[in-house]
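Q&A log
Question type: sequence-to-structure
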Amino acid sequence: MRRARYTINPALPPATPDGSPDVLYGDFDDLPAGARLLPPSSPTKIVCVGRNYVEHARELGNEVPKEPLIFLKPPSSLIASGDEIVYPRISGRVDFEGELGIVICRRARNVKAKDALDYILGYTCVNDVTARDLQKRDGQWTRGKGFDTFCPAGPCVILRNEANFEAFHIETFVDGERRQDGSPKDMLFPVSVIIEYVTEFMTLEPGDLIATGTPPGVGPVGAGSIVEVRISGIGVLTNTIRQDQ
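Response status: OK
Response body:
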């Protein structure tokens, strides 16, 4: 099943917590008329892995990490498929980064890699939007990756027990042109290792989102561009870029 988190209340904010009576769940392939997609979960935190594909590290001139390189995005950066990514006024270069996302299903602390799959609800698409110039200028990643709207996720979650992980294929399109083409099988650190590593120092809660890193091919976008992150078996995460006013 591809599970969707949605609302039929057009005024509901995109990152509404699950406690709202207007947050609904259903089969992505059978949504009611008037449904508006919400992000696939309401995370307490968004954990991201940097440089998890060798060729992506090299394309930006970075060293390949010897252990998972972890950073956080704030929950305020989360938006759904169909929502707009806002291009900040203070940035001169904003990049797309299509990624496979993991949604956690239960509290996880000191999880061993062999048990990691038991803590996964399912998989989704993520766009780790990045103000590349600010990331380089700051020397750390909080501002460059933490703007409001900089974590589109969705459009749904394919439940783990029904997912064919080996068949996942990540593609990112900008205005219909394919820019990224990769497979999670090429990750430097696989999903089980990421969960073990993160839960050694951080408790993951139900609904928390992990972005597992981007394959090579990242690049800039501009106002008006349409970015699609497509993962076979999951769906298409679609967002338009809008210049901040």
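Response note: Residues 168 and 232 are 5 Å apart (CA to CA).
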